[in-house]
Amino acid sequence: MMRAKYIPAAGAAVAMLLLAGCRQDMHDQPKFFPQRGTTFYADGRSVRPQVADTVAREQLHEDSYFYTGMIAGKEGDGLPLALTPELMARGQERYNVYCTACHSRVGNGDGMIVQRGYKPAGNFHTDRLRNAPLGHFFAVMTNGYGAMPDYSAQLTPADRWAVAAYVRALQLSQDAKPSDAGSATAQNLETIATKQGLPASYADPMKFPGTAVWANPKTQEDMTTPVSPMGKPAAAPATEKQPEAPAAGPKAASTNP
């Protein structure tokens, strides 16, 4: 009982010792607050000027065109990165993530957000945007345009250029002309079969088995003859053997009563 009497007093003493250690020295120490005045410096400002030529981390923008898309105050039309399949794949991936909601997968400005009532997005296939320099798309992603916010926080400068290159590819895909394709020599299948040592039947029209499923039954005309992998007609599938009729014999006994 005597021990129980002293437990509250001991607890209070421990609590007082703990509270004595909670001091506000670090909080109350003299220090400068941003944008507050001070008498320590002659000019009365607590914020000091940066040392000459100070550059923030990752902000050394020596190539101004790469970071702005502008040349002498005008939008440039060059791509400051090597045009590679990897760059186009990256541009497509980033475009699908950040741009399709408004501009759609094909860039016609009819994305799902627009279909739900948002302001119409830019259609990349109009004459104005089809003739716009590549730097225009980079600048819009950097600074925003109209109701479109900027995407400088979501897309690095390199990704913005990748998206701009992909937008140009979308424009070409919807307005391509035969003259845009490079010169090429088409070879018929017979020539390819000869060069590769394949049988001449390699070039024959493909035949599909009669069991194939068709969306349009009319398309299966003349396409029911099975062929082997090498182009030769395959053997006809074996038909199920039908039961033979019983041989003629004595008349079976009647089962009627």
Automatic annotation (TrEMBL):
Domain spans labelled Cytochrome c: 86-171
GO molecular function (one): electron transfer activity
Family annotation (InterPro entries): Cyt_c-like_dom (IPR009056), Cyt_c-like_dom_sf (IPR036909)
Keywords per UniProt: Heme, Iron, Metal-binding, Signal
One Pfam family, short name: Cytochrome_CBB3
Chain positions covered by the region annotation Disordered: 217-257
Protein name as catalogued: Cytochrome C oxidase, cbb3-type, subunit III
Residues of the signal peptide: 1-20
Source organism of this protein record: Bryocella elongata
